[in-house]
Amino acid sequence: MRILGTGGALPSNEVGNGAFSALADTSDEWIVSRTGIRSRRISSGDTALSLARSASERAIASAGIRREDISLVVCASVTGETLTPSLACLLQRDLGLREDNILAFDINAACTGFIYALGLAREFLRPGGYALLVGSEVLSRVTDFTDRSTCVLFGDGAGAVAAEASDGEFHFVSGARGDGESLVIGSIPPAPNPFSAARASPPPPLIRMNGQEVFRFAVESMTKSILCVTERAGLAPGDIHHFVCHQANRRIIESAARRLGAPPERFFMNIERRGNTSAASVPLALDELNASGRLLRGERVVLSGFGGGLTYGAVYMIW
Ligand code: ACO
């Protein structure tokens, strides 16, 4: 599979660390030193769908493909507004994609969602077919702005790629470790059910996270999965031109780079201005790297993600 074009979309509202000192007991100094984040975009009306639509339009335009040739739409998100229709189906409608012979569905693998989507697309795409793969999140819908340990971390945004089937080298690795404690976003409250004895009220749909647990999992799974895909390509981490990793914490990426023995400057970072945008993080970072002109055709690229589930995954591809 080969990525032909990328796109990104962000809410216009940029919120600096200073704004959080008024909401919770925190400081710019703590946030920057522990995470690397200085600001993030927060929706003031954008939805996961509106951001996904803008990012997708840009990805399709940058790929130079015809909308009617897209046969696969996969949208990774945990913050769509409806369980059904899926974001992918709403994108099919809003972008005017074809109705027959198309697969359009969402996946929930939290911050690893876009990496899972790439692996799935490789299985589904046939020669001559095109895929639209999107990560889009409005995490401010599920952020507890009174919880200082999480509210400073997250941002909203979307990233998308348009890809084609290709026999170019592509390696994918993924994993999952079911864990209902380390990172949870509560469920939609159930409707009253006269046939159920259960009366317990569900936890509110807000992010709860044990940061240290997730940190350990992140460094371990990123290192393991990046090593796995580079080895499958017969390479060492030092042979990779660009690493585009989930932007959750600057220290996680720096720690993985040290363990891998790869030059830190090859790890693209935009966390300083984006925060953690979950499933949007990797495609948004990829789009920003691509737009910078530093990503050249023929270069070796590794994408890597980890997140709620717990889940992780990595992809090796030639750009
Ligand atoms: N401001 C000031 N103090 C804070 C803040 C804050 N915003 N948040 C926590 N603290 C305090 C804690 O209360 C604690 O205080 P104490 O020592 O008095 O108890 C102290 O700072 C240290 O807290 P830790 O949790 O140990 O801080 P740590 O260095 O681990 O950093 C962080 C926390 C940034 C969350 C880090 O653990 C992390 O990045 N974890 C990974 C998160 C991640 O990758 N998530 C990805 C998945 S997200 C998804 O899937 C949607």
What is the CATH level 1 assignment of the largest domain? Alpha Beta
The number of helical elements comes to 10
Distance between termini? 10 Å
Oligomer: single chain
Helix content range: 25-40%
CATH-wise, what's the superfamily of the largest domain?
Answer: Thiolase/Chalcone synthase
Task: Describe what you observe in this structure.
This protein has 319 residues and is an alpha/beta fold. The chain has 2 domains: 2-167, Thiolase/Chalcone synthase (Peroxisomal Thiolase, Chain A, domain 1, 3-Layer(aba) Sandwich); 172-178 and 206-318, 3-Layer(aba) Sandwich (Peroxisomal Thiolase, Chain A, domain 1). Helix content is 31%, strand content 24%. The strands form 4 sheets. It has a 5-stranded mixed beta sheet, sandwiched between helices. A hairpin with a 3-residue loop joins β13 (300-307) and β14. α3 (48-63) packs across α4 (87-94) and α7 (211-232) packs parallel to α8 (250-260).
